[in-house]
Records
---
Amino acid sequence: MSDSSATTTATEAGPAPVEQTEGQATPTRKPKLGGGLGLGQTVGLVLALVLLIAIGGISAGERFLSIPNMLVILQQAAVIGVISIGMTFVITAGGIDLSVGSVMGLATVWATTWATQNLAGQFGWIVMVLTAVAVGVAAGLINGLLVAYGRVVAFIATLAMLVAARGLAEIISGRQTQLVDYAGFTDTFRGDLIGVPKIVWMFAIVAAIGWFVLNRTTFGRRTIAVGGNPEAARLAGINVKRHTMWVFAVAGLCAGIAAVMMLSRVNSGSSSNGYLYELDAIAAVVIGGTLLAGGRGTIVGTVLGVLVFQVLTNVFTQNNLDSSVQAVTKGAIIVVAVLLQQRFATVQRR
Amino acid sequence: MNGIVKEFPGVRALDGVDLHVLPGEVHCLLGQNGAGKSTLIKVLAGAHQPTEGEIRWKGEVVKLTSTAAALKLGVATIFQELDVVDGLTVAENIYLGNELATGGVLKRGEANRRAKEVLARLGHAEIRPGRLVGSLSAAGKQVVQMARALSHDAQLIIMDEPSAVLDQEEVRQLFRVVNTLREAGVAIVYISHRLEEIREIGDRITVIKDGRTVATSLPVSETPTSKLISLMTGREVLTNFGGDAVGPQSDTPVLEVENLALSGTFEPVTFSVRPGEVVGLAGLVGAGRSEIIETLYGARRATSGTVKVNGKTLRRGSVIDAVNKGIGLAPEERKSQGLLLDQPIYRNITLSTFARFAKFGILDERAERKAAKEQATALQLAPPDVERNIRTLSGGNQQKAMLARWLVHGCDVLLLDEPTRGVDVGARAEIYSLIRELTRRGTAVVLVSSEIEEVLGLADRVMVVADGRVVHTGPATEIDEHRVLDLVMEGAHA
């Protein structure tokens, strides 16, 4: 096959004069906040958010618009938000991680066992945090090893982890809810800092670091390259397998951090913590504008996606509407967002 | 039946093309890579709409709004990428999109019986309709596609380089089928750039170059090959490959390949390349040329042998090691193996070096842009705006970006696999002189190309590869195109 039809159509026009004029029309584009994404999409999400807040304000009035309620929304968004940041990396790298929710559940259980809390009593809250994070990273590394070196499809490898982590959490906890007894942990992670809940701060910090890592570091660039064209990345000398493994480890790390936040919020470890979180995270990442096929990712979009869903949930609760209706609406939003995204993508590629 | 006339000037890639096809003839469409053949076919097949010009079918102006519309009219296209569904049977593929069914229930017996008839008409009764298409060879898949075309009562079948994926015996079979079709009164547009094939099968020829027809409906029997070549290449035939070969600048080889082999793909090869030297690998597609350089690059894991760069042995199957020790590869399939199509040019250029620009893992995009910009300017990348998506560039400019990647990286050995495929004539000349410039600076180059002329023109030494074996090694000056072809043929039969 010496001239594949796809190649030639692009080249037959020669050094196309048309394209040159386009180039002059847009001289140098500054790097955007969205991280390689069209500004249009970010604006679209912001508009959706504003619209939802307007609807909330009109239907529920002060009850919805009050600052305490807004903080509740942010607090609810925080845990799923941190998980979604990790998910953004995995999806940008061309993978998927279905295990994040149950890994988080496992981490909350492991960090609240009698043994862990006992150790925490001696060495401080850091023991519980390290336990949760270690569980997350270990699970992520196992996922990564299976996907990168075991050549198991990410969907299957992480599906197996989803089931296994949930099972392990049940074994460890004996299906009991484990309360956080150690006061040092609660003192550190519960409550507010400058009027804003601490876990919201944690979400903000993780999001900021995530943005920086994805857009400004070699790790982020590799993630985009591996997701965009693994073969090209490999032939350019990037260690695709090792990087894939670390990307899954990042998702696990985020699940571990989310577990700490979850413990601070619900004050107990349980194997049912994080149930179905993976789906919410994937939905938030995708409506945020990260390409499910990989190669393009946006942390800002993900944060907005998470907020859109949380505001929606809150609007429904404030109006005492059925959660089933809410689920249907969520589904519709996902579809509409993806449809818009595709339209947008084709327009961009002309 | 009236004569089938199609005319279309227009379409950016096509700048005034005329094509007149008669029933029961094999009309060859000839042109170099990038001349506009593929676009023309897509217009004919209804995949693209012409901006100007008209298509007449049996004398009447028609609008082909989709491939389905074209098929309904009787125009079937067999694209290079064999678009068959591997998981379905032969009969299911033949009636794909046109299933024989009553009330949604497939009539499998009927489909199998009729598929059998069609296959018999094509002289391939040995293909069972119930067989899975995935188990067929490329030639078999092609037959299935032709059977599909016939099942639609196609009166015009367009074949886009059908022989590219076939071996010689299969090509002979293909020709038998084409003859059968011709006798049945079906018109065939046959695209190929193998002149000898056109001699064998064609009735008339239309030559296109740079999106224009330069000759229409020449009778094959009365047109000498030399005339065809001059029509195809015009004045722009590149006898000048950016000046004479520079020749090795040192006697110490920079690249030493010893008994490198990949079992089942190619037999042990041994060669070395000195700084400033160009070694060319000539041979047919599928002979194992690309496999040899991909293996020496570590992209495929060699089963035996060693590769040394500057005396240091490379780790087997490790691209990373090869890149670190100074080898770069511009792969054969630029889009699927080389580029991040959704990313800006500068990120494509710095794909192997961004980590070097970074400090403590934090990217220095300003430095990246600067380095990319320098190369873009030096290579006359058009447009020189490195922020643009690389997807929007023409093939030649994409290739330049590929080369720029390794220029920024800096390497002692550059492996170029089909560096001018899908590249227009102007950019081609620029790439040639760039290769010369690199060798002048002492880079060793290993070149793979399907165009023998290109290998002979650029290389100091030529290795002829046939059927996974190196059948000849020698200075480029001591061998000509005919000899290379002879060697290739002998090797392929051996």
Note: The first strand of chain B starts at residue 4 and ends at 8.
---
Amino acid sequence: MAGNGKPKFAMYWAASCGGCEIAVLNIGDKILAVDEAFDIAFWPCAADFKVKDVEGYPDGYIDLCLFNGGIRTSENEEMAHLLRRKSKVLVAFGSCACEGGIPALANLTTAEAIFETAYINSISTDNPKRVLPQPVSKVAEGELHIPVFYDRVRSLDQVVPVDYVIPGCPPEPHQIWAVLEAIVSGAPLPAPGSTIIGAGKVSVCDECPLEKHEKTIMRFYRPHEIVPEPGLCLLEQGLFCMGPATRSGCNARCPRVGIGCRGCYGPLDGVDDQGARMLSALASVLGVGTLRDEEAKLEPMIEEVMKTLVDPAGTLYRFSMAHSLLQRARVQTGNSTQEVSDEAHQH
Amino acid sequence: MKRISIDPISRLEGHGKIEIFLDDQGNVANAYLLIPELRGFEQFCVGRPAEEMPRITTRICGVCPEAHHMASTKALDALYHVEPSSAVKKVREFFYSAFYVTDHTTHFYALGGPDFVVGPDAPPAERNILGVVHKVGVEIGKQVIDCRIRNHHIIEELGGRGVHPVAGLPGGWSKAITKEMQQEFAEISRQNVEFGLFSLKLFEDIVLKNKAYVDMILSDTYTDRTYYMGTVDANNCVNFYDGMIRVVDPEGKGFVRYHPREYVTHIAEHVEPWTYLKFPYLRGVGWKGFVDGKGSGVYCATPLSRLNAADGMATPRAQEAYEKMYETLGSKKRDGRYQPIHYRLATHWARLIEVLYAAERMVELINDPEITDPNLRTPVTSTPDEGVGCVEAPRGTLTHHYWTDEKGILTRVNLIVGTTNNYAPIAMSIRKAAQGLIKKGTAITDGVLNRIEMAFRAYDPCIACATHALPGQMPLEVIIRDAQHHIVDRVVRGGS
């Protein structure tokens, strides 16, 4: 908090795994340039500031805040509001903050089921009295408090307005550095408003070295069922790959080692629903019928092929569940944030 | 009753909280470690295709995704009844050993080390990796960064990504090692051995030659006598990738030795209402609360536990270092093996011995002609049903257990994660340190707070996933309230 006029930097994690922090660390010795350009105002894993300190800052005190993790608990939500208020520029950093990420797969189930599985039905858990974690509990010496576990996971922008979005699970270090370097050098940022930065403008396919030959497929194979021909497009070999519907920026890392993309860099520009976009991209790969065929004739044929794609919901929306049209419909019927909070799990 | 809340503790900021209660005399009546976090992987993975689990469960922890990736991949081997070729096993173990070197190194230099290198009572602003560099020289700091970079290079090359690897498949691995890679990796492995030896020498010079530190390690404040768990090979030596689970009692006698798939027979988990994390314990002894000793089922699974549970190390220089630690800390041999060391702070030493072992193992593996086998995959056609996969994560034995339908869609998932094993021991160590350090009339100084933190820092708890990865000093605010919750005293450490 030295009064040297340097811009103030913050990084926080909500419902996340810590991989975003490691990705920042993986920019290597360039972290020293970040340290030189910014004063750290809050970064629990790297510096000595506390929530109390942040509460004491004037509103808008933090110049740049990288927020990773989704909103799973009451504590996550409180921190999102606090950091929005204290930050000039709030960035949703990484898939969880951007669109829910892997933890948002939990939106396919319920908080009750999560508790039942973890604390009651788990084969290794011995809990005959069916004890469940409680927001407030009494022990011999006094009361103990833990945060409320909400019914579903939300992305950061579903809780507070977000200025920029840096996608990826986690964002690739070279992309993180590209953004930070631009900021450090004083380059102007694009207009804010959930604007995507630190990623490409095309699809993963456009930066993938695997060759495409306009081949069509009659069924999908699961990754362990076939050994793909090296150097050739995985999707054209029947291995599901989200490349066509996923934003570039990662350098097609997974396809490069023979493993299909799962879409962590999020949807393409102008696309709302990544899964829906992937379904339409698949149309050109499926080898069913001809252009002249009636839709009624094509439909059952497409359905046959699609049956070989297991777990479409958990695959097409692997990282974007909180943002999917399906989920948004649920949230809207609940009349936005307030009611979602009211539905919070109260054990 | 007065209460001391350590909230927030940083680097776990928002993810961990310590509550200490003082009795009327001002002594510590009890202390609690609360974990305010749950994500529910065991439930939301149900319905997913099993083969996706190595790519989903990496997101349990971004600091040790390699451990989850590997346990998950091994669970798929078992689920699909496919025995990986010896080349596959070697490539996986090589990848996994590189991860161990970088993970343990970062913990020692960035998190655990500063307490010893810079000192437990040094100004908080110096008690971090930068302080370490100041004390021992910038050249060593550079060596630490280089060690991280070169091993992360291996992780990215072999795993596909620097964080959250993707290469594991049932029975296989999707990326082979070419001759060129072999040459490069052999050089990295050699450098790792040198770095491991160097780090042990540093520990000796700075810690073992300082009587105050040795006294602290040997003090009762940082001692708990529990059971110890670790994975051992056929010769009962430490292994990180595969083997049998061995548990020894506080006196070092073998309690049980079992195949990882039998874990449910031996491990159970206890639930408390004031935390989201469960407390595993030995079923054969039972849950007796937060107490140590032979009559309590509480066990530990840490670097020190692995060494305590094994008969020794499988590589020569690590074995020398192992013997030196047990001799130096006064362990006597019984029935041909050293008795367990209960000094929790010795875990830092054990961690460095494991770095050396992982590095030596890398050298062995990369020079094996089989390691460049280009065929690491075979199509898997058998019908899946149930499988357990287990590895030693840096922070403890990690178990993934999956059940599927005949199509390989998950119907049930159970996970016992590295740090979870140690939840009860960590909570007990915190309470013991608090009881030893806060007495009637004790001034709650920064040094006292840091010494309480040292009790859990030895475990490298991964509740604080990012904790051990970055330089820094945990800020603490201790609020002392009277019975009416009025604040009577406040001590702040950290911030500037």
Note: Residues 329-347 of chain A have pLDDT under 50 and may be disordered.
